[in-house]
Input
Amino acid sequence: MNLSARGLSRIYQSGAVATKALTDIDLRIESGEFVAIVGSSGSGKTTLLNNLSGLDTQFEGAVDFGDYSLNKLKEPELARLRHEHIGFVFQAFNLLDHLTALENVTLPGFFGPPKKSRSPERGAELLERVGLGNRLDSRPPQLSGGQKQRVAIARALYCEPSIIFCDEPTGSLDQTTGLSIMRLFDELNREKKLTLIVVTHEPYIAAMARRRIVIKDGRIIEDEPQTQRWPSTPAQQAEQAEDAAEGTP
Amino acid sequence: MNFSRFNELVWQSLSRNFRHFALSAVGVVIGIATLFFFTSLGEGVRTTVLEDVFVIDQLEVVDPAAGAGLRAGGFLGSGGLDDRTVANVAAIDGVEGVYPKMKLTFPSRASGGEALVGRDMGIEFIADGIPAELIADDVSDELAFKDHHSPQTCSDDDACADGHHCDDGECIAHSCRPGEQHADSNCRGLSYCHRERRECAMPIPLIVSPYLLEVYNGSVHTALADAEGIGGRLPRLSEEILVGFEFDIIFGESFMGRSGGIDSRRERARIVGFSDRAMQLGATMPLDYVLRLNEEFSGDEAAENYHSLLVDAERNEDVAIIAQQLEEQLGLELSDRHQQAERAGLLILLLTLLFNLIALIILVVSAINITHTFTMMVMQRHKEIGLMRALGATRRQIQALVIGEASVVGLVAGCIGIALGIGAGLLVDFAFDNYVGAFPFKPDTLFSWSPWMFALALATAVLFCLLGAFLPARRAGGVDPAEALMGR
Output
């Protein structure tokens, strides 16, 4: 499903003080795109993600997701839309520590109608897919940051969404782990034609997307397709430096 | 949301926060234990008082003029309780049956007891009469609470009482010789040879109130237990021992005086059963005996006016209205027993309500505690709730989750509270049984545990937990996912 915003503005009101977080955003994202939204801290990129994903519908203008107009949906309809079509990956992982990895992955299944496809077996398959097939019963405190984010990705995939919103998905990870997570996103985008929208403030992460939207002071100042550039990991960089010193190509 | 999966989610949350939930449930446990304890105690005491001490499943009315001599009321004036009154009472809506009662109006005494204590004893005999059909369920057919002395029609000998034969359609007593061995006598079965008439006769059937037995066992027997003489040999009595017991009644003569101008007469009587309908301190015989005896020893007028009427209502809920009509329209007065029962019942009800009020106060405080605990937990789980909303949970599902947790807390707390209430009751019963001496109507248990009490206790526990969780649930449902996930 395509996603589009027209005249999207968001104002936060705190007492008499009004803060404009987004101003007149026009945007269209086609199904299957891999988009990075970049900007400095406070530029409005997370607000934009919240508005586009229907987490926050207190905006002006319109956001359409397929045939759904987000700010016209009633609360249960919006919840159902999020449940069936949208996945989320957060910087802080947002896993529940008292649940196992598998239970975290299958958590979204509690909130929708029972379906055969939403089974523990599917949860286990997804954990296998993200490389955690041997950690089904581990609880989040027993996992590394990268493993937690992989669990979060498996959870986002559990209800077979058509779009995944990622808010600083590598923000809590070291560069090597962050790169592996981004490679996983890229694979999902290519294999499943998943629409991916990644909010980040790190340029090397943004460089891995095929479209880059730059946002500043609540406005889009740049929106261009780009050729994916995959940086080498620090380990690779160190290896390359060592090779260079030894004179090997 | 699937119910079993919802339960799974509730249990996951409960097991994670077990300590918090357990602490918040302590108040509910105490409140429910208190509520259950006092409700079952009140019901138990009420049952004993109103079903054994003061029987309230019947209305008994008396003529106020007969008691006060001055008070007249209603259109009946002070004419007494005659057949016309019976007809008027029977005409009241909701009245199922009216049963007149009449007391013996002349002195009598009883003599006998050798079979029980080894020698005959004498005692003043006080009795009244009621229609035999009123206590048909309380007496076995074999012993038959009926008028054996009125003329009986028959088709053959089998239709007549023991010691009688059928002659020309009427039961005729066999002749006999007093003092003859029972086995050799014509008086077979339950009949005996009447000393003066020299013919077989059936003993006058009597019923006795369980109250009298309780007073004897609880007071007389206890007081005389260590006495010298015959009093010290009095046995503890039971219904089984006394049913079938025979003794003589001397009508027209007592230790205090005798009927003027009429010779006394000796008849044999047999206790045929026990009934709450019987006179409390005396004995009760079929009404026709009393009518004939009063006419014989006190004159025609004494046989025309009843002393009280027992009134049965079609439905229990009609009793109050019928009582009001009896008093206001017919000028009759409810018997002292009924008024005592009402007062006792009211007193017990008030005491039960007072103690249950304490229980309710505990529960209200518990509900406030639950509100506090759940509010804290909703605040602690703010981000978790935001995540669930992001994953597709609706406001209602989040509210249901909190309400579900409160319901489980309420159910578990209710069960523990009930168990504690029963435990406390059993402890009190044990102490009551072992450390409190015997007294009339001392019950086997002070408590009455009915299914409705269990349902009430569980429902109250869940209700107060739900009340406590209501506001936190609303708060949880109102969590904004975007703000919660951004840590605001």
In short: Residues 64-148+203-331 of chain B form one domain.
